[in-house]
Amino acid sequence: MLAGRSERRLGIALVTAAAVAWSTAPFFTRLLPFDPWTILFYRGLFGGGFILLFLALKEGRTALGNLLSMGNGIWLVAFLSTLGMVSFIPALQETAVTNVAVIIATQPFVAAAFAWAWFREAVRPGTLLASLVAFVGVGIIVSAATANSDVSGIGLACLMVLAISAMTVAIRRYKHISMVGAAALSNFLGSLISMAFARDIAHVTSGDITILAMFGFFQVALGLTFFALGSRLLPSGQASLVATLETPLMPFWVWLAFDEIPTSRALAGGALVMAAVIADIIDDHRPRGKG
User: Fold this and answer.
1) How far, CA to CA in Å, does 97 sit from each of 60, 89, 149, 154?
2) Sign of torsion, CA 256 275 97 168?
3) Which end of the chain, C or N, has fewer beta carbons within 10 A?
4) 177 — phi, psi (to 5°)?
5) Whole-angstrom Cα distance, residue 14 to residue 224?
């Protein structure tokens, strides 16, 4: 029991760290005057490279061989992660950011449903309630924006949620494989796909390369690694719920760096998301009765 609680605490801490890392995406994107595919290409190269370097330092010369000998599980996780990444960019191009954000907020429910269907993983009622509150919070955050919705963009956003939710469950299912290695593979696969659509690959400067390297390290390498390690220790629905902290944290970094003051709705919705996650964590650690 104590070991299980300790694992849950570690899982929550790691997924929270992943949400913080992922939330820096708007900050880095603001610093780069390139098309999204070029950013995705370099971000994947640096992100995958940093993760691979970590594995090499940890496992030595056997790192690559160990990575490729882990069977279908690692390729499934890497494929799903890549699908989620490459769906996200065109979704933002085809429809309003508000639509994408609201669809992303449904991920805890989708992940919980996949986990139940795949291996009958139960979900606590408290987590479902907190997920619903977080969904409302995200709705408040994006309710001030207006834009015409587009079917293809919404479809891509739904595909992304399905992919990331399935990846979360697969990480939980295949605990024996190197999830850090899967994160590296997904980044390289994402770069390979993005190369076909990128227009500005040859136009980056040395200063841009520095920013892209930091983007790849902080937002991608740390984010994916923390999430891969943390989500294997938590029920899939709870891991996705904690990861929604990314949404209210995004405007914080933009405010800090560019002095853009968040709207009152962003503050109210963000507070609701954070309250939902904190309440679920407190409820998860509350002693349960035996009967």
Assistant:
1) 42, 11, 10, 10
2) positive
3) C
4) -95, 165
5) 10
> Across the chain, what does the average pLDDT equal?
83
What three-state secondary structure class fits 11?
Answer: helix
Distance between CA atoms of residues 27 and 22, nearest Å? 10
Amino acid present at 64: L
Find, among 223, 221, 179, 167, the residue nearest to 42 by Cα.
221
- Give the Cα separation of 152 and 7 in Å (integer): 40
C-alpha 42/C-alpha 51 separation (Å) is 14
For a pLDDT cut of 70, what percent of the chain falls above it?
88
Confidence of residue 63 (pLDDT cuts 50, 70, 90): low
* Token representation of residue 72: 């279908």
- Local structure of 50: helix, strand or coil: helix
What's the average model confidence in pLDDT over 153-177?
A: 85
Record the pTM: 0.79
> Are 30 and 254 within 8 A, CB to CB?
yes
Q: What is the per-residue pLDDT for 205?
A: 94
